[in-house]
Amino acid sequence: MTAAQAASSGERRSFADWFADPFRKPRFLAAATWIYIAWSIVPVLIAIRISFNAGRSRSAFQGWSMNWWTGTPGAALRDPQLLTAMRNTIVLGILTMIIATPLGVALAIGLVRWRGYGRRPANFLMLVPLVTPELVMGSALYLAFTQLFTVVELGREAQLLGHVTFTVSYVVVIVRGRLLTIGRDLEEAAQDLGATPLQGLRTVLLPLLGPAVFASLMIVFATSIDDFVISAYLSLDAGSETVPVKIYSGARRAPTPALNALATVMMLITFTAIALAMLLPRFFRRGQTGDTGSMVQDFAALDI
Asked: Within 13 Å of residue 301, how many CA atoms lie on the same side as its CB?
């Protein structure tokens, strides 16, 4: 065997040993992750860039300008219709957040404390809105409000009830995972010291649920303002259109970069809500003794 062949054989053996080593650095996994991130972010950055286009085109960039933000009557921050859609979206998201979160927290506590027959089917049914296609959910809600619950008119009221219907499951999943990691030891200790069950719930359990409740608030808000299908099905007229519906309807007519600017504003709001949902719960947990887990570990504790 020549020296070159021996060196080549040594290189092959070293590569095989490296590939078989379970403790090696995951270079391929990291590369695939960054490729996916770039593939997801680059189109968004291009769309944001078009919002600063000096011309009317949404496909060819013609120079930097703020015309489609504030400079023209049809700009994102000056057009009455676009501002109405933005206001409808934010108000709908806030109302959904205010209603769905307390309801989801109460349902999560009830499902965790339920020890009778039907607990597992109830837990499974709570996840149905998460796995049901939005087209099915939207059409079902439309038929429900137009043929069964006719007292609820299409528009803001129907949209709010529809958003609460499918977002409450997110709250239940998040809070229930947190409840399973907390356990009942601290509540029982408070009751041994003379606290009533209601006092234990108010002074012990709810403060421990603070990070999960805050994360639920932000996720419900972000999910609500990004929803298109249910908002479109339950919309009555232009006065109840949300930003996703407005962007879709505007893109089918004569779209301008103002739609890109409007989408950029809503995307920044969504990213801010998601970032707060991820970062602030860690800050809240710093003062909780013996709690070093994460939301992922909370989810892992779920028992459907």
From this structure: 17
Q: Give this prediction's pTM.
A: 0.78
For 231, residues 6+ apart whose C-beta sits below 8 A from its C-beta are 92, 159, 162, 163, 241, 242, 244, 245
pLDDT digits (tens, 9 = 90+) for 24-52: 676 777 788 889 988 988 888 888 888 88
Q: What is the pLDDT of residues 96-121, one digit of tens each?
A: 999 999 999 988 888 887 776 777 77
CATH number where 292 lies: 1.10.3720.10
Q: Distance between CA atoms of 13 and 236, rounded to whole angstroms?
A: 69
Residue 235 shares a structural domain with residue 106: yes
In terms of domains, do 191 and 283 share one?
A: yes
Distance CA 9, CA 149 (A): 76
Domain span at 33: 26-65
Of 35, 65, 95, the residue that ends a domain is 65
pLDDT at 267 over 50: yes
Alpha carbon distance 294, 304 (integer Å): 20
Asked whether residue 272 is domain-assigned, the answer is yes
CA distance 84 to 78: 10
> 242 Cβ partners below 8 Å, 6+ apart?
85, 88, 89, 92, 159, 225, 227, 228, 231, 235
What type of residue is 230?
A: I
In this structure, what token pair is assigned to residue 154? 């299409």
Residues 243 and 118 in one domain: yes
